[in-house]
Write a sequence for this structure.
């Protein structure tokens, strides 16, 4: 017999309601992950069998491989229970900074593997209602097992921060590259644009629209090939995306004439000088954002191609087409693009390039040499990045266990389903067996 | 078993949750130890996951499970659960349900965070009594299910989380029976539970 009288829903506190919703979502996610993991496990087994078949192994060798594989899987099970934390990584260097935290080059202490660690401050995200976006980024990084997308290996959290442990791309980002070069040649541009087309297409096929393609989010691997990062993360709701932000501005900003009258060389210099600052600001830059994203009328995949066109312009001309002294001006120019998108006569580029609509053979460009070759002296070489001053890693003030339940008790269960571990990353001690690597 | 009128919003939600929880996975198969792998590691991962989920589930009804509503931790009129540990309660002691749950969750947390019981370093063996400890943990977790189903099922239904709890319970049940981790005696309250909306897993 039920002993408790039930309380009607209406009397439920909003805190309880939230907790219930979160629990349901967590359980649903758990079971859908369970399915996914079950399938992935079977895939790995099949892959192993296939590779062994291809290599024509003898039964005895097969048996050994199978048991080695089972051992790896067991190891994965065990590692799933390990509570990774900050203390498992040695921080080597700050390599990037964003609006909501920083990116560091780190080394996992036990394996010696090098990763990029993105640190995001929870408080900032809660305050700016970025939690959904973080989840979106985590989800896409997890889902996209694609060679066009920066791979994520682990994620964990403590009281203060979320940590994303991603593959380290030693080539730096496109923004830094563009800051270093005056312009790119048409060939170089063609290469990067072609790769970015494939990259964007691959996330579109997963059903994601990036909405914030910009040079800061195009990373370069050790061979100089492009990968996408930063999925509509915090940037998704950066002020730059909000029309109200521009509406409420004082429209009679007089400053713009100086910029307007500069020749393209000066424009490019000014642009490059201020570029890094723009990247850090929570306002962000509207330079690459499609007009329809500003308008409340809805947008589709095409907005990513718009951004790519802007980047292509910047590569060839030295600054993006709508760049101005202030984001407000830039915004106006974007909205008025039919008049404002012009090509400076002093920087001649081909008619073909001007068309901005380029068609590429769907070849596999990664086998070709990159447009600009990347130089890397060692695995932790950061010479392709700008210099960043050392900072105190954002340490939690109170010692806490990393246990998810502790977090839950501490009411930051908004982040509860956040922790993630990838098979490949966890078992990657020493060499990764070829059948576990992503198809390359 | 509770039914919702087709066509109502509740029914649609219910159906949706059911679908996402039941999609494409046979839980009975999912709990089986994959060929060539270590039983202890397989069990350990499951125990930690079950603990986390049961804890979450209890969290959703905990404000209706009070000293007043449940002065004695029980599973219906026939089963009374007493708490015992190595510290304050050396003898089995009758406690209120919320107090019992608190002690239980804390105790399990200590167990699974104890490297000597649940080693996380690759290569460190499990202790000899590992499965014994696990049996104790799982039997106690099972009591949470029993209590929630028998005393707080109304609340679960009201929250629309039957499908969630049921799936979790079924998963748990298949797991413990697959590896014989709970005595049949402990599972007895199940009979009366089935009448209250708990799925018949067999
Ligand atoms: N996986 C990586 N490997 C190497 N460098 C990286 C990696 N991820 C990010 N970076 C560097 O850190 C910089 C900032 O990263 P990112 O753009 O992800 O930060 P952010 O917090 O998202 O910033 P914002 O939200 O302002 O775009 C990048 O421009 C790049 O230089």
């Amino acid at each position: 017999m039920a002993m408790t009288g039930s309380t009607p829903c209406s009397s439920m506190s909003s805190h309880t309601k939230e907790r219930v919703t979160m629990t349901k979502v967590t359980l649903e996610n758990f079971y859908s992950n369970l399915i996914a993991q079950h399938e992935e496990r079977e895939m790995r087994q099949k892959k192993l069998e296939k590779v062994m078949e291809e290599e024509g192994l003898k039964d005895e060798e097969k048996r050994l491989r199978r048991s080695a594989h089972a051992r790896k899987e067991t190891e994965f099970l065990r590692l799933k229970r390990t509570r990774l934390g900050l203390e498992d990584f040695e921080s080597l260097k700050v390599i990037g900074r964003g609006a909501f935290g920083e990116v560091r080059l780190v080394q996992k202490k036990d394996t010696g593997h090098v990763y990029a660690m993105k640190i995001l401050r929870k408080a900032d995200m809660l305050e700016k209602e970025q939690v959904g976006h973080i989840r979106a980024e985590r989800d896409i990084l997890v889902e996209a097992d694609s060679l066009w997308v920066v791979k994520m290996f682990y994620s964990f959290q403590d009281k203060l921060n979320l940590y994303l442990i991603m593959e380290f791309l030693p080539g730096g980002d496109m923004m830094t590259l563009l800051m270093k070069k005056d312009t790119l040649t048409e060939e170089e541009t063609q290469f990067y644009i072609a790769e970015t087309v494939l990259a964007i297409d691959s996330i579109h096929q997963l059903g994601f629209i990036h909405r914030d393609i910009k040079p800061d989010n195009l990373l370069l691997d050790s061979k100089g090939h492009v990968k996408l990062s930063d999925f509509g993360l915090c940037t998704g709701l950066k002020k730059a995306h909000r029309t109200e932000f521009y509406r409420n501005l004082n429209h009679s900003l007089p400053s713009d004439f100086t910029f307007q009258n500069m020749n393209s060389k000066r424009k490019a210099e000014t642009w490059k000088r201020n570029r890094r600052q723009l990247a850090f600001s929570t306002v962000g830059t509207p330079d690459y954002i499609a007009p329809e994203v500003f308008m409340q009328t809805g947008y589709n995949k095409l907005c990513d191609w718009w951004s790519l066109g802007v980047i292509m312009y910047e590569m060839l001309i030295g600054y993006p087409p709508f760049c101005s002294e202030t984001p407000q001006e830039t915004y106006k120019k974007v909205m008025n693009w039919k008049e404002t998108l012009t090509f400076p006569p002093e920087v001649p580029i081909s008619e073909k390039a001007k068309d901005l609509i380029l068609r590429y053979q769907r070849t596999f460009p990664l086998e070709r040499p990159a447009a600009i070759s990347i130089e890397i002296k060692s695995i932790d070489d950061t010479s392709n990045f700008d210099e960043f001053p050392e900072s105190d890693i954002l340490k939690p003030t109170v010692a806490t266990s990393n246990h998810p339940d502790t977090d839950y008790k501490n009411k930051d269960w908004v982040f509860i389903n956040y922790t993630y571990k990838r098979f490949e990353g966890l078992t990657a001690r020493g060499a990764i067996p070829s059948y576990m690597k992503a198809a390359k | 078993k509770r039914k919702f009128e087709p066509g109502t919003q509740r029914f649609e939600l219910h159906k949706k949750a059911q679908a996402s929880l039941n999609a494409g996975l046979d839980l009975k198969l999912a709990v089986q130890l994959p060929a060539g792998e270590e039983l202890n590691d397989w069990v350990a991962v499951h125990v930690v996951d079950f603990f986390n989920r049961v804890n979450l589930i209890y969290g959703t009804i905990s404000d209706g499970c009070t000293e007043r509503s449940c002065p004695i931790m029980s599973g219906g009129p026939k089963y009374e659960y007493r708490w015992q540990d190595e510290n304050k309660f050396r003898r089995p002691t009758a406690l209120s349900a919320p107090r019992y749950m608190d002690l239980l969750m804390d105790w399990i947390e200590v167990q699974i965070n104890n490297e000597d019981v649940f080693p996380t370093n690759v290569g460190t063996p499990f202790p000899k009594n590992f499965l014994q400890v696990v049996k104790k943990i799982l039997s106690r977790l099972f009591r949470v299910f029993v209590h929630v189903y028998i005393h707080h099922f109304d609340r679960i239904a009201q929250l629309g989380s039957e499908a969630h709890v049921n799936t979790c319970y079924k998963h748990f049940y298949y797991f413990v029976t697959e590896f014989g981790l709970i005595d049949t005696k402990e599972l007895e309250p199940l009979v009366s539970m089935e009448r209250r909306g708990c799925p018949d897993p067999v």
About this structure: Residues A 95-96, 98-101, 103, 116, 118, 150, 166-169, 172-173, 216-217, 219, 229-230, 233-235, 279, 385 surround adenosine-5'-triphosphate (CB under 6 Å). Chain B has a mean pLDDT of 84.
